[in-house]
Amino acid sequence: MLDFDELEADGGGGGGGGGTNNDVMIHRADSFYGNHALRTMDDLRQVGKLCDVVLDVEGTKIPAHRIVLASFCRYFYAMFTGEMKEATLPVVTMKEVNPRAMEQLIDYAYSGELMIHIDTVQALLNTASMLQLSDVQASCSEFLKKQLHPANCLGIRNFADAHTCTDLKLVSGRYAETHFDEVAHEEEFLQLTKSQLADLLRCEDLNVQSEEEVYNAIIRWVYHDKANRRADIAELLQETRMPLLSPRFLVDIVEAEELIKQDMKCRDLLDEAKNYHMLPERRTGMRPTQITPRKSTVGSIYCVGGMDCTGHSLSHVERLNLGNGRVTIEASMNTPRSGVGVAALDGKLYAIGGYDGGKYLSTVEMFDPSTRMWHRVGSMQQVRRYHSVAILDRQLFAIGGYDGVSVLDTVEAYDPRTNRWRRIASMEGNRRHAGVAAVHDCLYAVGGSDGSIYLKSCEKYDQRMNRWLPAASMNSKRGGVGVGSVGGRLYASGGYNGQSNLNTVERYYPDADRWSFLAPMSECRSGHGVAVMGSTMYALGGHDGVHYLNTVESFESHSGEWHSLGPMGTSRAVAGIAILNNVPCSTL
Length: 588
Prior knowledge:
Mean pLDDT is 89; it is low at 1-17 and 583-588. The protein is an alpha+beta fold. It is elongated, with a radius of gyration of 36 Å. A 4-stranded antiparallel β-sheet has the order 6-5-4-27, with no helix packed on it. Helix 3 (66-72) crosses helix 4 (74-81) and helix 8 (153-162) packs antiparallel against helix 9 (166-178). The longest helix has 15 residues, at 264-278.
C-alpha cells in the first residue's frame, strides 16, 4: 500500500522541501452534474422510491421529494421549511388547482423542460402564478402574445389582469385597441361589462376609421342584452366623439334609433352633436375630448407635386403621418405637376391640372390609398395652373387659375359618381394664386392676383343661386395665400402683397362679414399649401422670399397659437396638399 506519510516526508513528487501544488487536487463535476442528479431523483420518483411526500391534486396523486420541491419554488419552500402542518404530512392536499398543470410543473421541477401548448397554457400560467414561478409566467405570457386574435384578445387581457401579468395585459389591450372593428364583432366583446367597455371606448389610441364604428359597436353590445343594457347606452355614448359623426349619420342613423328616441340623456347628446354642425360658433364651449379626433382618424398630410428650387415641376408625393410625425415617400403621379390643385374626397386623393414643365394641363389623377396607385379620371374642360380646388356637397370645384395666356375667372365642378366636369357660374373677377375653402354651404375665393395686381378682395359662391357674390375684403393683399376653414370661419395665411412675403394671418367671420388679424405664422410663406383636420389647420412648404421651404406648422383654433411640426423631405412651393384619414401603412 502506498504510504502518503512517507511521500510527504520525502518531499513526494520531487518538489523537495514542503508541500507543493501536487499535494492537493480538486475534482469538479461536469456541467451535467445537477441535471444527472435530478434525472436520477426523477427515476426514483417514477418507481416511488425515496419519495417523502405525495401531492393530492383533485384526486390525482403526484409523488415527489420535499427537497426538490423546496428548491424548485418559494411556495413549496415556505410550505416545507416553515411551521405549516404540511411540512410533515405524508400527503398534501391541494385544492382549486389544475391536476394536469401541476403534473407538468412537477415534471419541470425535475427535468427543467416544459411544453407549453395552446390547450394548456392558461392552466399552466394560473398554476405558475400560484407557485410564484415567474420564469414560467413570463414564458406563458410570451406564448399567449403570439396567439392574440380578435376572438380571444379581450379574454386574454382579462386573464392577464387576474394573474397580474402586467406586460401581457398591456399587449393584449393594445391588440384589442388596434383591431377594434374586428374585435367588436366577436363574442368576447359582447361579454364585456359596462365599465370594461367604457374603458375601451375612451382609449385615445382606439383604431377606428371613423366614430361611426364606435357608435355601431355600442349599439351591438346593448342589443345583445337589450333588457338589461338599454339603461347604459347614454353613459357609453358619452365616451364617443358624437359631434364628429357626420350630419347625415346623426340624422339617418342615430336619430332613427329607437333606444335613442326613448332616452332623454341620449337625445340631449344627439342635440349637442347636431349643434356642433349647425352652430359652429358654440364649439368652443364643448369639452375638448368630445370634439378632438382620435389619433387613428387624424390621418396624414399628402404633399403632391409642386416646384422645387431648380424650377422643375415635380411628380413625387410625400406623406407626413400626423400620428407619429414620420415622413414617407408615396407612389409618384403619372405626370409632373406644379401649380396643381389637390383635394381629398371620399377617401381618395385628386391631383387636378397644373404644369408638367412643357404644357399646361387639364388632366386629373386620382390616388387610391388601398392600392397606393394613381389612376387617370375625367379631365377638366379647360387647362389650369395656379388654380384653387375645394370641396362642396361631395363635389370637387376647380376655380380660376392660369391657362398660359390669361388669368381665368371660370369655374368647373366634378362629380366622382359620373366622372365628369361641368361648367358653373364664373367668378366676378379673374384670379390665380387665390385661396378657396367652403363655409356654410358656400365657397369663398380669397385674394390671389388678376395678372396685374395682387388682391385682397373676396367673393363667395352660392350653389343654390349658381352665383358669385361679393364678400368683405381682407386687410392685406395676398397672392399665393393659404386658406382653410375651421369651425365655420375662414383663415387666410401668408401670401405675397406685391412687395414681400407675409407671415400674417386673418380670420373671416361669415355672419359679421369681417376680417381680423390673428397670431402670425413662424415663417413668411407664399405658394404654400393649407389643409384642415378637426380644429387644426396645417401650413406646409411655400417660399419665404429667399428660399423654398419644407417646413410644416399647425394652428390650433382653440388656443389661437401656431406650433412647428418639423420638416418634410423636399422644399417646394405651389404644391397641392390634402389630408387622408386611416391610410394603411407600415409606419402607422
